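note to self: dont lose this again. the chain is below, predicted strucutre after it. 331 aa total, dont forget to put it in the shared folder this time
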Amino acid sequence: MIPREKNPEYLNSFLDYSITILNKSPNSVKEYNYDLSNFLKFMMIRFKLTNETIHEEIDITLFTEKNLKKITLDDIHAYVSHLAINNRSKATTRARKISTIRIFFKYLSQKANILEVNPAQNLETPKLEKRMPKYLSLDDSKKLLDAADNQDNRNYKRDYAITTLFLNCGMRLSELVGININDIDFDECKMTVIGKGNKERTVYLNKSCMVAINDYLSSRPPQNLIKKDSKNSDKALFLSEQKQRISNRTVQAIINKELKLAGLDSKTLSVHKLRHTAATLMYQYGNVDIRALQELLGHQSISTTEIYTHVSNEQVRNAVESNPLADPKDL
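---
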């Protein structure tokens, strides 16, 4: 829950705007609140509006609209510098916070009409290094599925279905946890998921997914034993031991346990890496068009999807070896 009573009114109005107009998810809005609260606390200190030494105790409700109008681009740069030097924030973290600040000031100047001048208009994002996403090889993916299919685990059918969906469909953790049984069209072998920004998209299910889901449903607790609660557990596909909708943390623990059981590095691999794995395997082995992959993963920008178009070192080696001039005997 967002502590709205600790926010100035203009911040709460921005959060409402983010939910209702920008259609941001509750998690995104929670991050907005966290980022902007810290930003305003920094400004309170910078403008000498507080003597409070404990950061959490700084009262940002005292930062008025009049104070907002005093913020300049230099002040914002000072905050970003503070993040880099004092907080040792990574460039990706700073980029996310800068994005939040941009959206916030755009709202204040163009929608709320609180500011005549937008100080963040020329705010730049730090240059980010392009890194290849970490993913499992095809062999390691099979090892993970074998580890999930461990009949010593009484929930192995559920856990196997979860792992199968991650590796075959490339869905996000929140998307998997949010699946309801009635989201699945068993005749058409597809289902509807709710992605980032509450955007709905269709995920098609291959034979492995359908077999795993149906196998799990045969062992799922009877409907009359499932709790009815605010999480709509009675509709949920995946349930916890408590017969409630499974949580993000429980799914993460399941995958972490399977990674260890498969002899894979659970410190560098995670649930999100399984999304990378699914995308990479589909691109490398399935001759999938980049636009189709974008649609499948629910990416807003094609540039996000393009990180999966990398090729392995082995593919590069094979390309060189296949050169018709590769054999010196032929020269």
